[in-house]
Structure formats: C-alpha cells, structure tokens
Amino acid sequence: QSVLTQPPSVSAAPGQKVTISCSGSSSNIGNNYVSWYQQLPGTAPKLLIYDNNKRPSGIPDRFSGSKSGTSATLGITGLQTGDEADYYCGTWDSSLSANVVFGGGTKLTVL
Amino acid sequence: QLQLQESGSGLVKPSQTLSLTCAVSGGSISSGGYSWSWIRQPPGKGLEWIGYIYHSGSTYYNPSLKSRVTISVDRSKNQFSLKLSSVTAADTAVYYCARSRHAPWFDPWGQGTLVTVSS
What we know:
By secondary structure, chain A is an all-beta fold.
C-alpha cells in the first residue's frame, strides 16, 4: 500500500479536461515539493511537473500541477489519445523512515 | 542531451547479488546539484525508490532496502552502479536509473532493464 493515495483510474473524452489527485500527510506532501510522472505503455516514466507546479522544458502547458495542504493535483486539458498512460506523483517523506515515496499510480483512459 | 542507459544481468538466482550499471552520456556525472538514483517497478505495479548517490560519493538509501543496497559512482567512466544482495523473487522488477534532485524529482530516466530473480 502506497504512502500517497491516487485514484486507480480516471477517464475522459478527447478534448476534455481531467484531474488526478494525490493525497498524503503533513510528513510528505504537506511539507515537501511534489513531482508528477507520465508512463506511456512499455516505456520509462517521464517528468511532467516538479516543485508542485513547474513544467520542464518541452512539456506542453496542457499539463499543470497544484498543491493545497496535504494534497496535490495534476490537471490535463485538451485531452489527446496519446495522453493515455499511467501517472504517478512523488515526494519526500520526512517521517522516521525518511524516504522518497510515490503514489500507486493512476491509469488515464481517453475514451 | 543527457541520456542514461542501464546494463547488467537480467537473471539472478535467489540469495545472490543483483548488479547493474548506469552509463551517463551527454553530460557529466559530476555536475553540481544533482544526485543519481535507482528506482524499480515490479511487473504491473508502482514505483519504488531504491536510493541515490552524489558525485562526491555520499549516498542515501530507502530504509526498507538499506541493509541490502550499495550504490557507487565511477567518475572516470561517468557511470554509477547498484548492488542488491540476498535477492528473492520479490526483487523481480524493471530497474531504472535517473538523474535526481532532492526536491525530489527524477529526470531523465534510463529506458529500464528487467531483472528476474529465479533459480
């Protein structure tokens, strides 16, 4: 069971907007930066968002990140069939067993 | 641009040591401010961070794996390595290397290499 909680799956139609949540606690999301990753089928994860809401060079502005309290959200607008992938959130957990932790992943289906 | 490539044995027997290397090209492993990480993903499951190393050689490991993990760096070859001892079937996974920052974030990632633990 992951320290960070994500919905197992979300779906939306092409052109629509979808949000993926990532819920944690004060020892992780509440006091640390969140990053988001896209994993297309059969490929390595790719960084989409870092430091809660920053996009690396080359990531379109259709992807956005936000954080409030102990939860973070990834938003994707103008959905494309090529966005079908697994999405993971990640952060540092400052508990006794300090560690990098990831969410369990969310499968996005573009209907 | 920076590229990472994992290599090593794809099949390891139970109780033996898994060994992987990550070759870095298009940039120096001694670049300031970055660490170099190993992350794994069991088949059909999520991501698990294993640990990271700085070019100085300082390391930090996942507490759940710490007793079995060693990450080292070879600056002359621009590569870093992972050793995981006393492996079991639960260590079967795709192993990724990645450049990291302590925020934390990981970018870019290697393509990954599947390691199967089986007799």
